[in-house]
């Protein structure tokens, strides 16, 4: 049986574009009133899907070669498939769910793994630069085409996510699938770097696994904060993560928690009530497993 889990995922972005907004000339998504950088859940799921694809898993949401295909084309060989056959074929449906057109109908599956939007723990400034292509902008215009390149100067991004044990049971999610998810959270972003995405580094991941499929705790982002110059950060060396309230909250609920799976980047400094500590200090009293 799969039990519920609650996830906390932190990564930083330096001179890169974590999630471009096509409605804003591909500028990084922002809450301009608060100067907070935003990243959609779909961007994070895309990293995970691309990582699984590179490992040889067949996905429901994927291109064929370099060509985008319709949902109908992805399931053309599954016209008479039952739900279990669909779950068995596509790991991303087991994880995230999907709407699948089968037998002239739509099957909708709510995935057990869900993330909400990520946001930066610091105030973020944007960098705007002009770029020039070496190709002519038009056949008669031999000058290179001009464009804009938008990046964040530094953003420390926090995501929260859940795994629903009840939904996991329905879509046949396995412990092996969850282990792959943990692996992707650690490795996917660095391995999927492109010109606009290079400069992003996972810093901390916690998956708090509960003892049943009934328990859930609050969004863990509410129990952490960055210690440093909030409005002018430029690198991981200039800040630390204050975890005193997180430690207290996990300890308060330790009887509900079966195990905490974690990884922590060596460059991330942790504090408990202003004093330097290790990740094991934060998780003291809990069963833990390092990824």
Radius of gyration: 21 Å
Got a strand count?
Answer: 18
- Separate helix tally: 8
Distance between the termini: 21 Å
> How many distinct domains?
1
Approximate strand percentage: 35-45%
Q: Helix share of residues?
A: 10-25%
What sequence of helices (H) and strands (E) makes up the elements? EEEEEHHHHEEEEEEHHEEEHEEEHE
Pfam families: Cas_Cas7 (PF05107)
InterPro entries: Cas7_Csh2/Csh2, CRISPR-assoc_prot_Cas7/Csh2
GO biological process, one term: maintenance of CRISPR repeat elements
Protein name: CRISPR-associated protein, Csh2 family
Structure description:
This protein is an alpha+beta fold and 291 residues long. The chain has one domain (5-60, 84-97, 106-290). It is 23% helix and 38% strand. The chain has eight helices and 18 strands. Strands 1, 4, 5, 8, 9, 10, 11, 12, 15 and 18 form a ten-stranded mixed beta sheet that branches. Strands 13-14-16-17 form a four-stranded mixed beta sheet. Helix 1 (41-54) crosses helix 6 (175-191). It is flat and about 60 Å long. It starts with a strand and ends with a strand. The model has no long low-confidence stretch (mean pLDDT 91).
Give the arrangement of secondary structure elements.
Layout: E1 5-16, E2 20-21, E3 27-28, E4 30-31, E5 36-39, H1 41-54, H2 71-74, H3 83-89, H4 91-96, E6 97-102, E7 105-110, E8 113-115, E9 118-120, E10 126-138, E11 141-163, H5 165-171, H6 175-191, E12 200-210, E13 225-228, E14 239-242, H7 244-252, E15 257-264, E16 270-272, E17 275-277, H8 279-282, E18 288-290
Parallel strand pairs: 14-16, 15-18
Antiparallel strand pairs: 1-11, 1-12, 2-3, 4-5, 5-9, 6-7, 8-11, 9-11, 10-11, 12-15, 13-14, 16-17
């Amino acid at each position: 049986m799969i039990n519920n889990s609650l996830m906390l995922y932190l990564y930083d972005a330096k001179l890169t574009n974590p999630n471009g907004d096509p409605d804003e000339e591909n500028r990084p998504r922002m809450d301009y009133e608060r100067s907070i950088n935003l990243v959609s859940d779909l961007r994070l799921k895309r990293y995970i899907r691309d990582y699984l694809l590179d490992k040889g898993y067949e996905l429901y949401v994927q291109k064929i070669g370099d060509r985008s295909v319709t949902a109908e084309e992805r399931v053309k060989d599954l016209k008479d498939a039952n739900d279990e056959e669909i779950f068995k074929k596509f790991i991303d449906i087991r994880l995230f769910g999907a709407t699948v057109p089968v037998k002239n109908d739509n099957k909708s599956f709510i995935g057990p793994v869900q993330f909400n939007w990520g946001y930066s723990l610091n105030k973020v400034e944007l960098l705007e630069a002009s770029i020039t292509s070496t190709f002519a902008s038009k056949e008669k215009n031999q000058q290179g085409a001009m464009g804009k390149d938008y990046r964040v100067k530094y953003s420390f991004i926090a995501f929260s996510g859940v795994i629903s044990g009840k939904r996991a049971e329905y879509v046949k999610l396995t412990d092996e699938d969850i282990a792959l998810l943990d692996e992707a959270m650690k490795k996917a972003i660095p391995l999927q770097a492109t010109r606009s995405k290079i400069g992003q580094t996972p810093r901390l991941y916690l998956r708090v696994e509960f003892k049943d499929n009934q328990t859930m705790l609050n969004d863990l982002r509410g129990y952490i904060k960055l210690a440093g110059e909030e409005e002018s950060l430029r690198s991981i060396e200039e800040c630390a993560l204050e975890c005193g309230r997180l430690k207290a909250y996990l300890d308060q609920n330790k009887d509900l928690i079966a195990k905490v799976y974690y990884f922590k980047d060596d460059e991330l400094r942790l504090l408990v009530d202003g004093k330097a500590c290790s990740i094991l200090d934060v998780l003291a009293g809990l069963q833990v497993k390092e990824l």
